[in-house]
Write a structure and sequence with these properties.
- The complex is a heterotrimer of chains A (about 30), B (about 100) and C (about 400).
- Helices cover about 40% and strands about 15% of the residues of chain A.
- Chain A has one helix at about 1-15, and one strand at about 20-25.
- The radius of gyration of chain A is 13 Å and the shape is elongated.
- The relative contact order of chain A is 0.12.
- Chain B is α+β, with helices and mostly antiparallel strands and about 100 residues long.
- In chain B, strand 2 (about 15-20) and strand 3 (about 25-30) form a beta hairpin.
- In chain B, the strands form 2 sheets. In chain B, strands 2-3-4 form a 3-stranded antiparallel β-sheet, covered by helices on one side.
- Chain C has 14 helices and 9 strands.
- In chain C, helix 7 (about 175-185) links the parallel strand 5 and strand 6 (about 190-195).
- The chains are: A alpha+beta (about 30), B alpha+beta (about 100), C alpha/beta (about 400).
- The interface of A and C includes residues 25 and 27 of A.
Chain lengths: ~30, ~100, ~400
């Protein structure tokens, strides 16, 4: 994912990224 | 998998798209990953992918010219990495829980 | 590129609350064949006001309309409801994914085969010890064997990627490697969560919660070996032990913002660890001032609107770690009698210690479905066998 990260950083210099991702298991309050 | 904007892509059949005021949430029932699309244009493009032979034409149809497509193509690349988007010849409901 | 105001990051969208939850916990019944000492829902006896099958289906219809992506079905022990499988099927047929939390009592070979054939159902087996000795001290004699049997059946049936859910305690924190090995052995994914002083957990929290040293041990283990371990974002209160971002997760309390709890009688709470009137948003069946039905409660309940306002750091404002730990868990603070705008009882800087040492009023939930006359601290546990017939509705004894 490194080149993805670099590309993402570059894109952020121009404009913010248009997509963000999370894992749904990262939600507190769900057991 | 590399993202090639000159070919056809589509949403994986296990992905749900939920409109939000800011854009949309995509949830992949197989990978349990959530993606957040941050403007309505990219949502429109994603929803229209099946109607276009390739991603660039879908972008143009939504008013995004080739020289403006960079951030969009980058975003689609991210969606391909997380298997939200797959090539058009690969969507088969039978036995395709995402790995 | 058209210039537009930047869209707030995902985490900021979440803090502000969404028009529908992303997922939610649904406790289907307070009935349970076990009496775990730390049960967050004080379960055991079925509540006579438990929702009917049709009422449950109506909720699922509403979740579908709202596009709630999935539900975590738990309880008590949800599989003791005679309509459990009917409801799971109904949910998946209506585009709501299901993960259910179980002690394994009903996961026999036939059930495991059925589950293996379904794409949209995930199973989470509860286990609190990597050995029977440690586990059964909390969950009751025979409960370890029952959980292992369920895992065996799932593995044999080809079910992929079950979850093993462990509540981290003073007595099992040394078994983290063993839990991981156990999960690997069954082709399952390990999930660890935080012990909170909720439900019966309040009675055992002082003795069972990890010590400060053990918290460091746990944090280090997560950083070193936790890459494929799920945490349900339970441990963001430990973030201050290291660099920001070292622990995967959103570091966000989702209560009332992106998640909530629906309980067996249709009450809606901010979170499953907060079953108390203070965190009761409303009821699905009866209009308490802003409309009946889940969507009305989610969107309009004053409690939820309050939670979606920017939260003040309060006494934690001057601490450099606040950005990472966000002051910890509101349920942990509430049930230990600590102020909500102060440190978490397990604050890694030790700021919770002075408050814990004082006399404090520990709020007790209005609800207690424990068997044997209610909560009274660790009770002798009896493991009950699988049922011969459907459970009684008004049940003061065995729910199975």
């Amino acid at each position: 994912m490194d080149s993805n990260q670099q590309a993402e950083d570059a894109a952020e210099l121009v404009t913010e990224t248009l997509v963000e991702e999370v894992s749904i298991d990262g939600m507190c309050g769900v057991y | 998998m590399a993202f090639d904007p000159d070919r056809g892509w589509q949403l994986h059949h296990q992905v749900a798209v939920r409109p939000e005021p800011f854009g949309a949430l995509l949830y992949h029932f197989g990978t349990r990953k959530l993606s957040f699309l941050k403007n309505r244009i990219i949502v429109e493009i994603v929803n229209s992918l099946a109607d276009h032979p390739d991603v660039r034409s879908a972008c143009r149809a939504a008013g995004i010219d080739d020289d403006q497509q960079g951030p969009y193509l980058h975003a689609f690349g991210v969606l391909v990495q997380s298997k939200m988007l797959i090539p058009v010849d690969q969507n088969s409901p039978e036995g395709s829980t995402a790995s | 590129m058209t210039a537009t105001a930047p869209v707030p990051r995902l985490i900021e969208q979440f803090e502000h609350g969404l028009d529908a939850p992303i997922c939610l916990t649904w406790e289907l019944t307070y009935a349970c064949n076990l009496s775990c000492v730390h049960c967050l829902s004080s379960s055991g006896k079925r509540d006579p006001r438990e929702l009917s099958t049709q009422q449950c289906k109506d909720i699922i219809d509403e979740l579908e309309r709202m596009q709630v992506f999935y539900v975590n079905i738990g309880g008590g022990e949800p599989t003791v409801r005679s309509d459990f499988w009917e409801l799971v099927d109904y949910a998946t047929e209506h585009h709501v994914g299901v993960k259910f939390s179980t002690n394994g009592v009903r996961i026999d070979e036939a059930v495991a085969a059925k589950l293996a054939a379904s794409d949209y159902v995930d199973v989470q087996i509860s286990l609190d010890g990597a050995t029977a000795e440690i586990n059964d001290a909390v969950r009751g004699p025979g409960s370890f064997a029952m959980a292992i049997r369920a895992l065996e059946n799932l593995k044999e049936a080809g079910f992929k990627d079950a979850k093993i859910s462990v509540v981290v305690t003073r007595h099992n924190v040394d078994q983290l490697d063993d839990f991981k090995a156990l999960a690997d052995n069954y082709g399952a994914t390990l999930r660890i969560t935080r012990l909170r002083p909720s439900g019966r957990g309040a009675d055992v929290w002082d003795d069972l919660h990890p010590t400060a040293e053990q918290q460091v041990q746990l944090y280090n283990w997560l950083v070193a070996k936790g890459e494929r371990v799920l945490t349900g974002d339970s441990f963001f209160h430990l973030s201050g032990l290291g660099e920001p971002g070292a622990l995967a997760g959103l570091n966000l309390c989702g209560a009332g913002r992106v998640v909530c709890l629906i309980d067996p009688v249709g009450d809606v709470y901010a979170c499953p660890f907060a079953i108390h009137e203070r965190f009761l948003a409303g009821n699905i069946l009866s209009d308490t001032g802003f409309g009946a039905g889940f969507q009305n409660v989610w969107q309009n309940a004053p409690l939820f609107r309050e939670l979606r306002e920017p939260q003040s750091a309060g006494a934690c404002g001057s601490c450099g770690h606040y950005d990472s730990c966000r002051g910890g868990c509101m349920a942990a603070k509430f049930f230990t009698g600590l102020p909500m705008d102060g440190p978490d009882p397990e604050c890694v800087q030790g700021f919770g210690e002075p408050a814990l040492a004082q006399d404090r009023d520990k709020p007790k939930s209005h609800l207690d479905h424990s068997r044997s006359g209610g909560r009274k601290g660790p009770v002798p546990l009896k493991l009950l066998a699988m049922p011969a017939k459907a459970p009684q509705k008004f049940c003061n004894e065995s729910p199975v």
